[in-house]
């Protein structure tokens, strides 16, 4: 015979009380999370509503009054895209951010794989140099690089900004990906070598598919850093005939008051809509990649 636990009234009452406390704690956690989401989303909601309100309403009342008097118009977006050239600025920002992100992810992946899998003299010193570059402020290189860009003809060009942003994002990218690649089991590499796979084949067929979450995480961060960058495009694209990036355009619009707040709100929302869509679409990869690269290796 097996011993059976006797359920006394006191035990049942204790179990019921514990279950009730667990439910209340669960609901409390959910409430706190919902409140955090609401506080985080409220500025974006205010920006979206203000971008659709007429100029006279925006100047005379707060955005929350739209719920009592819902008067909306798309004139602010038409003005922002037509007269303020926000569409061209968005195109310039995409032309900067997308290639910069792709180059950062590809070069970081190659560099991290080399540090993890390849044996060569100076590998430890190179790893320490990458860590040192993480704490080096990029601002100290602005004057020398401006002089170099003026000498070689890269000043005022988009490829010049690619070189700067990729160069100063690579140390972090290699550091992040290195921790993830070091956690891949050694047996996978040995199995690939036994099957006759070359180093390139192993990298393409095994390492890259396994690294998609961490590559997506790095891509999101690199894109946000490039998209939100104001100082580098302002300095390195000064005097060029191209439309300025959206950050530079918005900085100029803030100093102007002739167009009113409505077009500025519309232009600002368009500038934040792209990163928000990117984060929402890739959030599951972002969380998995950051956890995998931060705690292993």
How would you describe the overall organization of this protein?
Keywords: Cell membrane, Membrane, Transmembrane, Transmembrane helix, Transport. Belongs to the binding-protein-dependent transport system permease family. It is a multi-pass membrane protein. This is Carbohydrate ABC transporter permease. 75% of the residues lie in helices and 0% in strands. It folds into two domains: 54 residues; 218 residues, MetI-like fold, CATH 1.10.3720. By secondary structure, the protein is mainly α.
Kindly list the characteristics that best describe this protein:
MetI-like_sf, cell membrane, 2 domains, 0% strand, transport, 14 helices, transmembrane, mainly alpha, MetI-like fold, single chain, 297 residues
Count of separate structural domains: 2
Structural class label = mainly alpha
Shape: flat
- The whole-angstrom Rg is 26 Å
Series of secondary-structure elements, N-terminal to C-terminal:
HHHHHHHHHHHHHH
The CATH class label of the largest domain is Mainly Alpha
The CATH architecture category of the largest domain equals Orthogonal Bundle
Alpha plus pi helix count: 14
Number of strands: 0
The major β-sheet equals: none
Percent strand: under 5%
Mean pLDDT: 81
Q: Identify the CATH homologous superfamily of the largest domain.
A: MetI-like
Q: pLDDT under 50 segments (min length 5)?
A: 293-297
Query: Helix content range of the residues, please?
Result: over 70%
Distance between the termini: 51 Å
- CATH domain fold name of the largest domain: MetI-like fold
């Amino acid at each position: 015979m097996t011993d059976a636990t006797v359920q006394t009234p006191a035990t049942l009452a204790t179990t019921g009380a514990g279950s009730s406390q667990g439910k209340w704690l669960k609901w409390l956690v959910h409430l706190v999370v919902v409140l955090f989401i609401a506080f985080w989303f409220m500025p974006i909601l205010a920006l979206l509503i203000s971008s659709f309100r007429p100029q006279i309403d925006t100047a005379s009342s707060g955005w929350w009054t739209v719920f009592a008097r819902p008067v909306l118009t798309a004139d602010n977006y038409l003005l922002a895209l037509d007269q303020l050239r926000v569409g061209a600025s968005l195109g310039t920002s995409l032309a900067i951010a997308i290639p910069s992100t792709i180059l950062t992810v590809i070069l970081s992946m190659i560099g991290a794989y080399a540090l993890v899998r390849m044996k060569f003299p100076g590998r430890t010193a190179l790893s320490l140099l990458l860590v040192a570059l993480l704490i080096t402020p990029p601002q100290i290189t602005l004057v020398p690089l401006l002089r170099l860009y003026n000498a070689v003809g890269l000043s005022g060009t988009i490829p010049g900004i690619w070189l700067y942003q990729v160069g100063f994002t690579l140390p972090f990218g290699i550091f992040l990906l290195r921790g993830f690649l070091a956690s891949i089991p050694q047996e996978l590499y040995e199995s690939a070598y036994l099957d006759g796979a070359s180093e390139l084949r192993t990298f393409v067929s095994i390492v890259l598919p396994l690294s998609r979450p961490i590559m997506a995480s790095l891509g999101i961060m690199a894109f946000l850093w490039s998209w939100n960058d104001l100082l580098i495009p302002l300095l390195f694209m000064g005097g060029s005939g191209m439309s300025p990036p959206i950050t530079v355009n918005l900085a100029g619009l803030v100093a102007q008051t002739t167009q009113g707040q409505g077009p500025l709100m519309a232009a600002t929302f368009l500038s934040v809509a792209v990163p928000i869509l990117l984060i929402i679409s890739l959030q599951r990869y972002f969380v998995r990649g950051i956890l995998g690269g931060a705690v292993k290796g």
